Amino acid sequence: MKQAFLQAQQQADLVITSGGVSVGEADFTKTVLEKVGAINFWKLAIKPGKPFAFGKLDNAWFCGLPGNPVSALVTFYQLVQPVIAKLSGAIFQPAPQFKPLLVAQ
């Protein structure tokens, strides 16, 4: 896994992983990131999406999404998309939100 991180940072400005950022026995992403880079923050007070890692490798930024598919989707849209927009020089435009229309009867 360490070798994969080192190789990925040479090929990209942003490395994104899914899974392995929590505290279980098989969650190695955070441990490896601490060895080859730095963690800026880890664990958020949001549900779904609590285990999320953000940090810096030597040559790339890092976003570690949770392994749960719904949590990964939420954290990608809420946290990673703005990072991608910032790195690419674009202005982040959140997706439109639809509110239910209440009709009086």
Describe this structure in words.
Strand 3 (53-57) and strand 4 (61-65) form a beta hairpin. The model has no long low-confidence stretch (mean pLDDT 84). The chain has a four-stranded mixed β-sheet, with helices on both faces. It starts with a helix and ends in a 17-residue tail after the last helix. The protein has helices spanning 2-11, 29-36, 69-88; strands at residues 14-18, 37-42, 53-57, 61-65. It is an alpha+beta fold and 105 residues long. It contains three helices and four strands, in the order αβαβββα.
Output the structural class. Answer: alpha+beta
The main sheet orders its strands as 1-4-3-2
* General form: globular
Please give the alpha-carbon distance between the first and last residues. 60 Å
